C-alpha cells in the first residue's frame, strides 16, 4: 500500500544554507511482536497483551535545524508501562537531542522510576549508499544500509559441548542489516531515533522488525520551536547506563526466580515474547 506523506503546501525543497531553517517531522513506529506459549505454560494475561499491543505502535516528533534535532514520543494520556514482578517498567522514552556538528547526544531515560541523562558521542554508522530509489509521498528517496556484526552468545558448559563437537553444529550468527531511505531534497543529515549521517533527511528506517516511517513533514513552520537540550536525570555515559540497567534486570530476575528452579528439579512452562525480527 502506498504510504502518503503530508507536507506543507508549496514546500518541496529547502535551502539548507538558510540561517533560520527549521523542520518538523512526524514518524510512525511499528514493531512486529511474536508471542509463543509452551503447552504447559500459563495463558497470557489479557492485560499484558493489551500493553504489548500499545508498545508495538508509537508516534514520534522530531524538530530539527541544520545541525541539531530533538526527537521524542508524542505525549499520551495513558503512558505505556509493564508490570513485571512488582516492578513498574516505564516504557515511554524521553527526549533525544543530537548535535551533528559536535557529534554528541543527550538522552533522557527513565529506568524503574529513576531518571538518567545519557551524555555521549554519536555512533558513526558505516552507511553503504545505493542507487535504488522509491517514492515516499512526494519525495524521491535513496536506499542506504549498514551491518551490525553479531557474535555467538556464550554457551553453558562450553568446554563439554566443545569436546562433543556440538558447538560446530551451532549456526553462525548473521549480521543485522539496517535499511534507511533518505531524500536529498531535504539536505540535512538528521534521522529518527539515533540514526543520522546520510546526505538527506531519513524518512524511513527498517531494523529488526521495527519500521520508522515519516508520515508528515513541515518545513520552516510559521511558529518556530526552540530546540532545547534535555537536562533531567543523573548524568551517565551510555556504557554506565547499560551496566545499571543490566544490574536492575538481574535483580528483578532473581526476585522472580521460582524456588524450585534453584535446585534444578522443577520444570515450568514458558512464555516467550519476541520483539522485532
UniProtKB/TrEMBL annotation:
Alphabetically ordered keywords of this record: Signal
Pfam family, one: Porph_ging
Span of the signal peptide: 1-18
Biased composition (Polar residues): 259-277
Region (Disordered) location: 256-277
InterPro entries: GLPGLI
Domain of life: Bacteria
Protein name stated in the entry: GLPGLI family protein
Organism annotation: Flavobacterium akiainvivens
Taxonomic path: Bacteria, Pseudomonadati, Bacteroidota, Flavobacteriia, Flavobacteriales
